[in-house]
Amino acid sequence: MYLSNASSKSLVLLSMLLLFNAACSVSPSKVATALPPADPAAADLTKTVARVNGTDITRAELSQAKKLILANKPGLQIPPLLQKDFETQALNQLISSELLFQASQKLEIKDLDKQAEAKLAEIKKRFPDAQDYARELQKIGVDEKGLLESTRRDLAIAYFINTKIAPDIKVSEEEIKKFYEQNPDKFRQEETVRASHILIGIDNKSGIEAKRAARQKADKLHKELVNGADFATLAKENSTCPSSTQGGDLGYFGKGRMVPQFEQAAFALQPGGLSEVVETQFGYHIIKLTDRKKAEGIPLSVAKDKIENYLRLQKTNAAIETFVGEARKTAKIEVLL
Fold first, then answer.
1. Contact 157, 101 (CB under 8 A)
2. Which residues constitute the domain of residue 234?
3. Pair 133, 204 in one domain
4. For the chain, what is the radius of gyration of the CA atoms?
5. Is there a single domain that holds both residue 154 and residue 47?
6. Are residues 117 and 14 in the same domain?
7. SS3 letters for 144-187?
8. Which residue has the higher pLDDT, 128 or 28?
């Protein structure tokens, strides 16, 4: 199914949702598990629900916009009493993105079509294969031509924001310091450890004998390590974890990153320490702790760039909202919902 230029406009929402903080941009690997109840009015998908300076926004676009919002919120369900508010929110996003797109059309953007094609190629690479890509497009109700057109519109809007709004955004040293001082909880590095492990993996469907054999092998390797065998060598030769190629090294991790049994054993060790054989749903592990970093505050010098980027984004969002608000005052907007 080929979508018209008007129908593809709703995909501009992908960029605008993030800018307006109404929802997040859609990840191509996620699809909503719950959509709004069927709307009887949605039967006439060609019906105009709003008009912005003479450009129609259709029921089909609005339906698609709602799907896109929910696509980033798996499992979210909109109660019946809030359906109207949700629909109004989605329509307002479409109107805002249309105003920004119309503003972008006053600028000369070089190689926009080539940029859109390159961006679409990047999107396609995120999918394991062409079938997954096609299924995802079908779920959000657009074909590749429609996605290409919406990508082109997104890039035009981004160019407008980056050239006409973002350059005026300034973040001072005082603002950065103030944010750092007022949010100490955001700049604390929790305790982390670095560990290596040897995993003798077991299949959940494995029988008692297979599990017993895996445990016996883990016990044998543990004994060899206690007697001085090289951990990295045994990991490379025996571990069924992909980390075996790095001698079992898992890098640094904090609490909550590993399964409870593994985490408890790892954090109980001191650097250089070796655990007993630890059983998890993945099999039998032997853990060696190689380093430990205590919890500590992150200095301003380290956090500065991230704080500046965060504050700049907040100010940019506010400036976009201001621009759209002013544009609405002079635009001819008809809401026919």
1. yes
2. 188-296
3. no
4. 27
5. yes
6. yes
7. HHHHHHHHHHHHHHHHHHHHHHHHHCCCCHHHHHHHHHHCHHHC
8. 128
Which residues does residue 201 pair with via DSSP β-bridges, in sequence order?
283
Dihedral angle computed from the Cα positions of residues 247, 252, 253 and 258, in that order, rounded to the nearest 10 degrees: 0
Q: Among all chains, which residue has been given the structure tokens 């505050």? A: 297
How many structural domains is the chain composed of?
2
Rounded to the nearest 5°, which phi and psi values hold at 238?
-130, -30
Q: Which residues of 10-40 are buried (b: 16+ CB within 10 A; e: fewer)?
A: bbbbbbbbbbbeebeebebeebbeebbeeee
Confidence of residue 46 (pLDDT cuts 50, 70, 90): confident
CA separation for the pair 177, 182 (Å, rounded)? 9
CA pair distance 185, 10, nearest whole angstrom: 38
96 in any annotated domain: yes
Contact status, residue 141 vs residue 67, Cβ threshold 8 Å:
yes
Q: What is the mean pLDDT of residues 74-92?
A: 89
Q: Are residues 317 and 291 in the same domain?
A: no
Could you tell me which residues come within 8 angstroms of residue 58 by beta carbon, excluding any fewer than 6 positions away? 6, 7, 45, 46, 47, 48, 49
Report the phi/psi class of residue 5: left, alpha or beta, with left for phi > 0 and alpha for psi in -120 to 50.
Answer: alpha
Give me the CATH number covering residue 52. 1.10.4030.10
- Find the range with the poorest average confidence among 31-35, 112-116, 166-170, 313-317: 31-35
Residue 243 lies in a domain: yes
- 179 lies in some domain: no
| Residue 17 shares a structural domain with residue 130 | yes
CA 165/CA 309 separation, integer angstroms:
15
d(CA 119, CA 60): 25
